[in-house]
Amino acid sequence: MSTTAVGLEEAVVEAAAHLYVWALKDIPRDLRDALAAACERETSVAGIRVLETIRRNVVIADEQENLVCQDTGIAVYYCRVGERFPLHPAGIYRALKAGTEQATVGHPLRSNTVHALTRENTGANVGYRVPIVHWDFVPDWDGLDVKCVPKGSGSENMSFLKMLVPADGVNGIKRFVLESIVGAGGKPCPPGIVGVGIGGSADYAMHLAKEAIARPVGTRNPDPLVARLENELYGLLNETGIGPMGLGGDVTVLQCHIEHADTHMTLNPVAVNYQCWAARRASAHISADGAVELDREF
Amino acid sequence: MATHELTFPISDPGEILKLHAGDEVIVQGHVIGIRDRTQIRIFDHGVEPPIDLSGAFLLHTAPNVRKLGPGRYEKLCIGTTTSARMVRFTEGLGERYGVRAICGKGGFPDEAIEPMHRLGMVYMAIVGGAAALETTQIEEIEHVAWEDLMPECLWTFRVNDFGPLTVGIDAHGNSLYHDVQERANTKLEELYARFQ
To answer: Which pTM value belongs to this model?
Structure first.
């Protein structure tokens, strides 16, 4: 490994450690705005009580530099790697893992990662195949974008997949999203972001749903047909009356985001991944010379 | 909808009967932190809890803490987890140990309504994820048992103005969660009809 690659790996370690803690403590502007708007819109007594408490909590987290939510989640990262970025993805993965561990031990943060069968804690929020990293590769570029999305279990447990048939059509997709969110009730800490993945294969649909929840709140899919469905589902979901924390009310979701992929002619997969109101995310751009620029809005 | 202030553990079960689904509650006194593995040990492995739970207020939590010394911990961030996973312990907690209130987030399914009614217990909803606030309301970690289950130990917290909580299921057979689900299911039929 060249000296540059060593320095670059260290820069990614530091960036990951910073992003993990930053995401947990300081929620993004667009989310704060969405929560403020929700508070204005809500009319149920219990719903207003919940939303006002949420906003008070966000202010206290700022003032005391504490975590917004105690669930430090499972560490998920999204990487966009330029084809000329000097550090190989194997090195990037090693650095993200080391950064997660550094943040967990240094803060300290609660460690949630356990072996899938023995349930023994593996320590420091890392383990076999954890953190979970998603990759995109960008031609003709020498940079790296890293987005950290610590995913809480309350919302992740409310993930749903259905292999609809083509004859179920778009109406089948709408029904499945609606019944999933009504069934989830107060468990995923509503009002949050409903991520919907449509098309691809079974695994890819869920991957897309997860990608959708990691977008800035209220952004729209560039495909106008999909954006229209986002608007429609957002309206329908807020008519269900589930309300903040499932106690009944007008605001059930802050947004509905959809990502889609082309699929097989006989497939119609739809996946729902929920993100709680504390929709934590933080990003950094790392250039080829190791300079790190923090940026939340990607 | 009324607002109540209650100090736990309570000795008069009548205090619980004053609460109705939808009411707001602020809690003082002591709160017992408990979670999946803690209750699996009590009920599935048959290990008696080393502390008295009569009249207790239980909180579904696994806190972020820093160890100060043997059995001594400093709070870092304490929040509340999803209750539904632990609903099957409700009857045992009330019947065998005299627990009066269970607090968590997201609610209990309908199977909790009957035992809570029969045994004079309530489910109180906290705002999930609002851990920064909750941490300021927990004054001290007074005691911890079963440290080998860290962080899913049996915690005793002293609290001040803990809340606001909402009575989700009362001791009179009412559940906000049941009512909200029932209305939502009716609404779903109406929404489906709109695009079908």
So the answer is: 0.94
